[in-house]
Amino acid sequence: MKKYDGAILITGGAGFVGSNLAMAFKARYPKQEIIVLDNLKRRGSEFNLPRLAQAGIKFVHGDIRNPEDLSFESKIDLLLECSAEPSVLAGFGGSPEYLVNTNLVGTINCLEVCRKQKADVVFLSTSRVYAYDPLNEIPVAEGATRLVWAAETGPEGWSPQGVSERFPIYGAKSMYGATKLCSEFVLEEYRAMYGVRGVVNRCGVIAGPWQFGKVDQGVFSLWMQAHYFKRKLKYIGFNGTGKQVRDLFHPADLFDLLELQLADWSKADGGIFNVGGGLEVSLSLLETTMLCEEITGNRIQVDVDPVNRPADMAIYITDAQKVKDTFGWEPKKSARNVLEDLFTWVKEHEKELETLAKL
Q1: Cα 29 from Cα 24, distance rounded (Å)
Q2: In 10 A of CB 248, how many CB atoms?
Q3: Cα torsion 170, 172, 178, 181: sign
Q4: Most buried of 89, 117, 120, 350 (most Cβ within 10 A)?
């Protein structure tokens, strides 16, 4: 990573991804000033504050929706934009106001910090920028433990290896995905108009310790905690078989990628990269159940709801070939590694997680 004399600001820095990146940067660069800003709206994020403080990371209780919260005594040289309303289901059946104000207006407020401070920005986007109808139209077959694509050709940007950056972005994608895509467009304008250096990482499912899993976001953490604490789960959609598939990757692997990108802005600036575990690091819910049973030694009740949720997909696999070719990056942790790390973390923080479950 290039040396930053000013501070690194991590928005959404008390959340799962932001806090893990903050801790990783501080461990690797102990003299680097790191500021995390978070509104603590998402329950569980408050449990990250003690470890951030212990590491010497400054916490600011603020909200990216409010420009006045984004004023700091320190000069900001790098902004990691990790803040978001991350639920794909957000806005369905209700108002999208908070989501739009956070994921789009909030991003613009962050980019204003970069413009004024001449700071670089890493924008964490999402695989949800891609339209789900073209993906769901690809034929699938039912294997023993997962659904598999049953085609060799499909939409532009798709192959049996997954979804690349050329996959269609036009079409319904969820309000979450739409706001993140809009933010990507705005970042490109800040690059063109103001010379802000920026890179976009369209992340698939990130999973690991300090993820307080919920039904609408953080499914692998939810699955591990349910097995550890012997709580019921439910296979939702796709005939209730639990065979829908996602690839995943660990926040430690994301940190490795950011180091590579920040070390070479000639390759990173203006880049849009799909980031994920790919076919090699992917699981169905049924396979996740089997691994969780093996790791925890517990079997739990898993109910069935065959009805698909809005904007859901049978299979999503990241084709990360572009980022591999550009930076030589690939995930080091397997799916089992991710779940084992989650198990260790849950075991070490059993009391806090039990407390959170009661709130």
Answers
A1: 8
A2: 26
A3: negative
A4: 120
Count CB-CB contacts under 10 A for residue 346: 20
Q: Identify the bridge partners of residue 20 per DSSP, sorted by sequence position.
A: none
For the record, the structure tokens of 281 come out as: 């690091």
Q: What is the pLDDT of residues 324-356, one digit of tens each?
A: 999 999 999 999 999 999 999 999 999 889 888
| Cα distance between residue 12 and residue 15, in whole Å | 6
Q: Tell me the pairing of strands 158-159 and 162-163.
A: antiparallel
Report yes or no on whether pTM surpasses 0.90. yes
Identify the DSSP state of 122: E
d(CA 343, CA 286): 17
Q: Tell me how far apart the alpha carbons of residues 233 and 222 are, in angstroms, rounded to a whole number.
A: 9
Residue pLDDT, tens place only, 282-318: 999 999 999 999 999 999 999 999 999 999 999 999 9
Nearest residue to 256 via CA among 332, 325, 199? 332
Do strands 245-249 and 205-206 pair parallel, antiparallel, or not at all (unpaired)?
parallel
CA distance 195 to 119: 10
Number of helices and strands (H, E) in the chain? 13, 17
d(CA 357, CA 103): 27
Q: What angle do CA 221, 223, 225 make, to 5 degrees?
A: 70
Bridge partner residues of 142 (DSSP): 147
Largest CA distance in the chain: 57
Give the position of tokens 């980022």: 323
How many whole angstroms separate alpha carbon 85 and alpha carbon 98? 8
- Give how far Cα 301 sits from Cα of 147, 229, 231, Å: 22, 12, 8
